[in-house]
Amino acid sequence: MTDFPSFPRHFVFGAATAAYQIEGAVREGGRGDSIWDTFVRLPGRVDGGDSGDTACDHYHRHAEDIALLKELGVDSYRFSIAWPRVQPTGTGPANPAGLDFYARLVDRLLEAGVEPAVTLYHWDLPQALEDRGGWRNRDTALRFAEYASVVAEALADRVPRWITLNEPWCSAFLGYANGHHAPGAREGTPALAAAHHLLVGHGHAMGALRAAGVREAGITLNPDHVTPATPGPEDTAAALRAETQRNLVWTEPLLAGRYPESEEDTWGELITRQTFRRPGDLELISAPMDFLGINYYTPAVVRDAPHREPDPRLRTADDNRFAAVGMPGVRHTAMDWPVAPHTLHALLVSLRDRYGDALPPIHITENGSAEHDEPAPDGTVHDTDRISYLDGHLRAVAAALADGVDVRGYYVWSLLDNFEWAHGYSKRFGIVHVDYATQRRTPKDSYHWYRRLIAARR
Ligand code: GBH
């Protein structure tokens, strides 16, 4: 593909990663355990029994990875800070070795001409806080603000863009409702409490970032583009429940200062009997943000379905009477995710239509695909499917811009093949291939394509 979609001059192009997925070195520099260090050791939870113990060894190889970013020509690099490196038990003064690692990373990025974009929380909660209830416990929101303040005081002068939480839906619902992610719990109202406390933590962290002088701060969500399988009333109502659980539970408090109107139909007594909300929470959560981060991969088509668990006392918070249906006829990635770039365009337009002026400028903080990469003997990967995935989604972003949606940037997920959570190393999202046995990095064709696209804009 030589004809690239076109973008405004100041549009930010970037690449993204997350600490636990790339760093390794989990016992170095005084790092404490996170919930993922515990989870990966539970039998059967991660494909192949994989863990992030070594991952891409980025902790020791960050100079090489920064050189890859520089050569790529990205404006910005989004990475996350491991809370348990900074506060090994989730509270108290900073562990200097932990903070220094990130301070050096930031300095080297700036030397390479790449702007750092920091995610404070990409799912690696200190295990010591989980031992006290984790996100079910409101105190974790206050600990998160304390951590945000420690990091921001050290780095705010050099880091322009800050993201409080990455995909709180995953933390609350995969972590506490269906148990696919750490800490692996399967609960009802406590998972909804976790969702609320993540929002409260975001609100407090925004305050901590402001106090440290940060001017560009926001949250990253993974909103779904949801459509009903049929236009009938049952599937339409099911789609609203899906949208409530996936999107509205976050966007309504954050952008409109209210709880979703459809929450009672979605959760029934799991939400009507809640006791975790306090006066003032909505004001805190809805404090203005400078941007909204959106991670987007694939759409959701849903139909009406009965509860999976008939006994209401045993229902988890994601048992909301809808089920996903397949999308035949479209290409699927190695994650088995249908590829439908026009749904990203539609999602962006629908967010703007719903929230109007209350919708902050948008950064696409993640987009990318896992493909069945087959490296040649020299390590090169001719990943034409990934290139066409990225091209399609960038065109969808350009179309949203043409429709007047204020999108400011796009970060490809991911710079490197890495630890794909419950899928371990079996799924490769990188535009750079990693041979885990040797830690050799080899840029794939998609890396070279993205480099040319960025260069063409200039
Ligand atoms: C994002 O999550 C993450 O921010 C990033 O860390 C991740 O690597 C990337 O996308 C690609 O997945 O099959 O039930 O075990 C997107 C949401 C959450 C989607 C986990 C895939 C698999 C859960 N992802 N989910 S399961």
UniProtKB/TrEMBL annotation:
Entry keyword annotation includes Ion transport: no
Catalytic activity, reaction form: Hydrolysis of terminal, non-reducing beta-D-glucosyl residues with release of beta-D-glucose
Domain of life, source organism: Bacteria
GO molecular function, one term: beta-glucosidase activity
Keyword line: Carbohydrate metabolism, Cellulose degradation, Glycosidase, Hydrolase, Polysaccharide degradation
Pfam families the record matches: Glyco_hydro_1
EC nos: 3.2.1.21
UniProt keyword Repeat present: no
NCBIfam families registered for this protein in UniProt: BGL
Family: Belongs to the glycosyl hydrolase 1 family.
Name the record gives this protein: Beta-glucosidase
